[in-house]
Amino acid sequence: MPNRTAAAEAAQRPVDIATMRASARRLLAEGAELPSFGELETLTLLLRGHIMLLIPEVEKAAGPLPEDDIPRACALACIGESRMRLNLEPGRALPAGIAHAQRLARSVNALCDHFENLPVVN
């Protein structure tokens, strides 16, 4: 079997980082237009889905690394924080819902960073 480059292997991974980052930017970009309540609900569900897809992928990449590896520890801490955020309920008011979705968006970005930076695991 021929050697594959890291980019080719990353292309085989079932995660669309560009789409996930675009979803996060919708809430985090400077000057971003705030969503309506209905848009916010959809965006929050989308971000939750991204996190649920990313967590096992980042765990899979971090798992084989040595236990004292700093990138591994950072990735696992990010996973724990992301899981905690998945368990939180947004407030009923629009500002509270936006703040909740922004926290989810930051988790998506952080998990994407770890996904891109950790070694590819087959």
Measured by DSSP, the beta-strand proportion falls in: under 5%
Strands, total number:
0
Structural class: mainly alpha
What is the count of DSSP helices, taking H or I runs of 4+ residues? 5
Q: Classify the helix fraction into a percent range.
A: over 70%
Order of helices and strands: HHHHH
- Largest sheet features: none
Q: Would you spell out the secondary-structure blueprint of this structure?
A:
Layout: H1 6-12, H2 17-28, H3 37-62, H4 70-87, H5 94-117
Helix pairs in contact: 2-5, 3-4, 3-5, 4-5
Mind explaining what this structure looks like?
With 122 residues, the chain is mostly helical. The chain has a domain of 85 residues. It has 5 helices and no strands. The longest helix is centred in the middle third of the chain and has 26 residues.
